[in-house]
Write a structure and sequence with these properties.
The chain is mainly α and about 70 residues long. About 55% of the residues lie in helices and about 0% in strands. The protein has four helices and no strands. It is globular, with a radius of gyration of 13 Å.
Length: about 70
């Protein structure tokens, strides 16, 4: 079974990181937006709108918070 550190390393290698700037809560939406080249505001609005539907949205956010590594200091 892969450790959390291995998973973070793999995710980080794919360019999916939580930025140090432009974050509101944990940086998950900003990281997803940066990775896919869209507006962070759009990602946040889509997440809030998705809360109206049944599903594990909050759990998915928490999991991404755990596995997405922080952006390295520059």
């Amino acid at each position: 079974m892969a450790s959390l550190q291995d998973t973070r390393s793999t995710v980080g290698n794919r360019g999916l990181v939580r930025p140090r700037r432009g974050r509101m809560v944990a940086g998950v939406a900003a990281g997803l937006a940066r990775r896919f080249g869209i507006s962070a505001t759009l990602v946040r609005l889509l997440f809030v709108a998705s809360l109206l539907l049944p599903g594990p949205q909050v759990v998915a956010y928490l999991v991404l918070w755990l596995i997405m590594p922080r952006e390295a200091r520059s």
